[in-house]
Amino acid sequence: MAKSMGEGEAPRFAIFRAKDAVPGAEMTVMEYAAVSPVVTEGARRVREAGAGEGSDLKLLFSMPGFSLTYVWFKSGYPLPRHSHNVDCLYYIVGGSLKIGQEELRVGDGFFVGGEVPYTYNPGPAGVEVLEFRAANAFDIKVLANNPAYWDKAVATVQSHRDGWAAEPRPSPVMQSV
Length: 177
Description:
Helices cover about 20% and strands about 35% of the residues. By secondary structure, the chain is of the alpha+beta class. Helix 1 packs parallel to helix 2 (about 145-165). The chain starts with about 20 loop residues before the first strand and ends in a 13-residue tail after the last helix. The relative contact order is 0.24.
């Protein structure tokens, strides 16, 4: 059930299983919006430094007008300032995060309206969140257009990468998938 359904195929009832989740690299519900050359180059450098080892993104469920994704950002993961073109409700199932001056833990969450720029910092044990959207297709616009941000992000990835390999998920919910 994790695979995206076409228009007009909305079920009245559906079961989905974590083991069937679509890995982030295979997801078709999120499209990257055009970015500046600074973002393009910075994102390339961060990927090459090993940022992929610091996160796990999965599509759990998608149907016309609705999607549910799971993401685990490991401790120290540098999530760039970004926005999406649709509203999103985030629910923390493991670990913690800091958004602005607020520290949020398991059971907490936050809402971000479409086109509202934001970022957050995973806590010391990382963070696992469920992302609920009233859309089965949305974009991501990376807005970190400052070369100094990308230099710092690369350094952060390099300093955390070895530790990420052994970092356990903060919640047992998704440990078997």
